[in-house]
Amino acid sequence: MKDMTGNQKSLELHDTVDTTVETEINHVGIIKEQIANETKFMEDHIRSKVDHYKKYNAVGIFISVSMMFYVIQKTIFNCFASIDLQYDIWSKVDMLCAIVDITVLCFF
């Protein structure tokens, strides 16, 4: 290549651009590798936490069923007793919590 004066231009600029492009390509490769490593680490970490959680899943379901059983007992009592037990706010909350807990523990 010749410049405006007719002198031959050096290839220094072209070499610098090539080196910069190669460096950027290497950085992209390193970043992709780091992302892959972090993704694998997170998947392994989450998998181990889920396995740990599964140990306590049955206990959570049992506690939720017992909360529902309490409200069911109160309903059965009210059907056959001459005096009705009122459904206080805690009975309603117990039933709601039990339904939500069982749904979450069994299906998610």
The total count of strands amounts to: 0
Cα-atom radius of gyration: 34 Å
Major β-sheet, in short? Answer: none
**Helix/strand-derived class?**
mainly alpha
The helical percent reads over 70%
- Report the mean per-residue pLDDT as an integer: 80
Shape: rod-shaped
Low-confidence stretches: none
Count every helix, treating DSSP H or I runs of 4 or more residues as helices: 2
Q: What fraction of the residues are assigned to beta strands by DSSP? A: under 5%
Q: List the helices and strands in order.
A: HH
Distance between the termini: 67 Å
Description:
This protein has 108 residues and is an all-alpha fold. Helices cover 81% and strands 0% of the residues. The protein contains two helices and no strands. Helix 1 (12-80) packs across helix 2 (89-107). The radius of gyration is 34 Å and the shape is rod-shaped. The two termini are 67 Å apart. The relative contact order is 0.08. The model has no long low-confidence stretch (mean pLDDT 80).
Give descriptors for this structure.
mainly alpha, 108 residues, rod-shaped, 81% helix
SSE layout and pairing:
Elements: H1 12-80, H2 89-107
Helix pairs in contact: 1-2
How would you sum up this structure in a few lines?
The protein has 108 residues and is mostly helical. Helices cover 81% and strands 0% of the residues.
